[in-house]
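Journal club prep, notes for RB
We'll compare a predicted complex against what the paper describes. Inputs for the hydroxy diiron-OXO moiety case:
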Amino acid sequence: MLSEKMQQLINDQYHRELFSANQYLAMSSYFLQEDLDGFANFFRVQAEEELMHAMKQFDYLHEVDGKIEHGPIDSPSNTFGSLLEVFEEAYKHEQLITKHIHEIVKVAMQEGDFATHQFFQWFVMEQVEEESTMRTLIAKIKLIDGNKSALYLMNEELMKRKAEAEENAA
Ligand code: OFO
């Protein structure tokens, strides 16, 4: 049986995942306006992954007889000063998400909620990947340091990123 506290934590996390999707779509829009379609594609795929995270949590909560109480989603940032700023904000956001996921796992452990503990292990490792991806891209952007040819190549590279579902179907 899921505790009230855990039900609330998962509800909050579900809304955070939706916020993440919205934030990454806002970043995708920014890049489309900047004529960087590869970067826009990267964040669009990222947004799709966030929706998938939210749906995993939605399904889990209902599977254990809990309920999502649908509420408002915080507004995302829509204006950015630079390419680097976008990625730094995304990285900071992922670090925050990691903290929340770890908090859920900690409470699950304290409550002896083995199912939730097990379920969120997937997210623990997903966060390792998300943070690592953002860190790597920040390092590349710093390396490029405004060089237009290198930026063009990176944009082409990011154009190749596909959603997980699409990749599995290929
Ligand atoms: Fe759902 O991992 Fe990013 O936010």
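Talking point for the session: The CA atoms of residues 101 and 124 lie 7 Å apart.
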